[in-house]
Amino acid sequence: MRKRLLAGGFLLLALLFIQACGRKLDPEESCNFVQNSQLQRVSWQDHTPVKLYIHSSVPTQYYAPIEAAVDQWNRSLGREVIRVELTGVGGEAVPKRDGASMVYWLSQWEDDRRSEQARTTVYWTGDRIYEADVRINAEFFSFYGGSGAQAFSGVDMESLMLHEFGHVLGLSHNDAKASVMAVTLANGTLRRTPGKEDLDSLRCEY
Question: For residue 185, how many other CB atoms are within 10 A of its CB?
């Protein structure tokens, strides 16, 4: 009888352990964030500012508009949530999960995804982001910074990076009229200021 009680006790403890480990979290309102399988928003939480590194493949004339996009998010939110930690970082221009959130300039792009101006890949565990890499499609698009004469034949780098850094922070696409997270950005279009929808979304987490 005692053996049966002990066995039953171990079984009960095992079940409680499994339930604790597999505890489901209550779903959250998305606030236009990417969500995990339990419908929790994924974000950097209190691990800000996010440190960004600019790979040496990125032409130096684009450093200023990239940093301007970072500054725009910080000014709009009233605090530093993202920062360019280092520019001109060496090594292969091959995005990979390595713990460093990097901006890459890629001269070769998948032919079946040529319409992408850029792509941000976000990695998370549970509901916390730990890395986000940005790829810029330099094979099929031309870019410009500032108010150069190429404006109507290329993509504004600051507007594009403002959008991609929204993804870095955890935001998904948003087709609201004033949002910088709209799916497309036409050549010559300036979209350099986060909309109310974007800021309200980020304030759900930051």
Answer: 18
